[in-house]
Each structure stands twice: as C-alpha cells, then as structure tokens.
C-alpha cells in the first residue's frame, strides 16, 4: 500500500494494531463503528491508505474517494438507514472540527438527526 502513517490512529486500526468493530471491509476501504457514537448508528468509513482529509483524497485518488462513498452507501443499506434517511459528514480542518487526520466519512442515522448545525 502506498500511503501509510504509523503514527495515525486509523492506519493502526487498518493494520489491526488497535481493535475496532468493523461492519464492512473491501480491498481498499474499511467501515467501523465510532467509539463515541452520536446517533444510534454512527459508522466511520475510511480508505485504508492514509490521506489526511477529503481534499487530499479527492486530489490524490478520486477513484478511491468514490470507493469510500460506495462503501458508505452499502453500509447505509446494511444498517437499515435507507428508509429513514441518514447524514454523511467529512469534517475537515480546524473550522470543520476534524480531530483525526485520516480522512473519514461519518455515517449517522437511526433517528431524526435535527438541524445540520447547532444554532
Ligand atoms: P473527527 O472529529 O471528524 O476527526 O472524528 C473523529 C472520530 O473518531 C470521532 O467521532 C471519535 O469518536 C472517533 N474515534 C476516535 N478514536 C476512535 C477509535 N479508536 N475507534 C473508533 N472511533 C474512534
């Protein structure tokens, strides 16, 4: 694999060094439950390769960005979110509130989620 960062929490999950509750794995993506869920369903979808955020992923490997979205869509279906709807978020950078700098889509659902931003 081209991009791996041994100091990155999510790269260590991909490597199996840190446990995670995996809900779907493909050759190039991984989906696992968030350790601090903000909704009844809260899954993180990542590329296995290390890209720090959605901008570097989209620039570096748009096909892989598409695979992340495809995995998110499949997990939305397997988690039963298609009927009620769900939310997908890529927090990016400081203003975006990003805490883990390995790109991840938050997939949230299972209840009405309310307004997109706190008011
Ligand atoms: P963000 O603020 O968008 O960078 O989101 C990082 C997310 O990673 C947060 O929702 C955390 O709860 C989640 N998280 C941190 N450590 C772990 C872990 N070991 N396993 C699963 N999720 C984690």
Structural class category: alpha+beta
Strand order of the largest sheet: 1-2-3-5-4
How many individual β-strands?
5
Please tell me how large the radius of gyration is: 14 Å
Ligand roster = adenosine monophosphate
What string, H for helix and E for strand, traces the elements in order? HEEEHHEE
- Compute the average pLDDT: 96
Taking pLDDT < 50 over at least 5 consecutive residues as the criterion, the unreliable ranges are none
In helices, the fraction of residues equals 25-40%
Helix segment count?
3
Largest sheet: 5 strands, antiparallel
Which word captures the global form?
A: globular
Strand content: 15-25%
In whole angstroms, the N-to-C terminal distance is: 42 Å
Put the structure in a nutshell.
The chain is 26% helix and 21% strand. The chain is an alpha+beta fold.
Q: Could you describe the 3D structure shown?
A:
This protein starts with 8 loop residues before the first helix and ends in a 10-residue tail after the last strand. The protein is built from 3 helices and 5 strands. The model has no long low-confidence stretch (mean pLDDT 96). The protein is α+β, with helices and mostly antiparallel strands and 119 residues long. The protein has helices at residues 9-15, 54-60, 62-78; strands at 22-25, 29-33, 41-47, 86-89, 105-109. Strands 1-2-3-5-4 form a 5-stranded antiparallel β-sheet, covered by helices on one side. The chain is 26% helix and 21% strand. Adenosine monophosphate binds at residues 9, 18, 20, 34-36, 44, 91, 97-100. The site of adenosine monophosphate (AMP) has 12 residues, from loops.
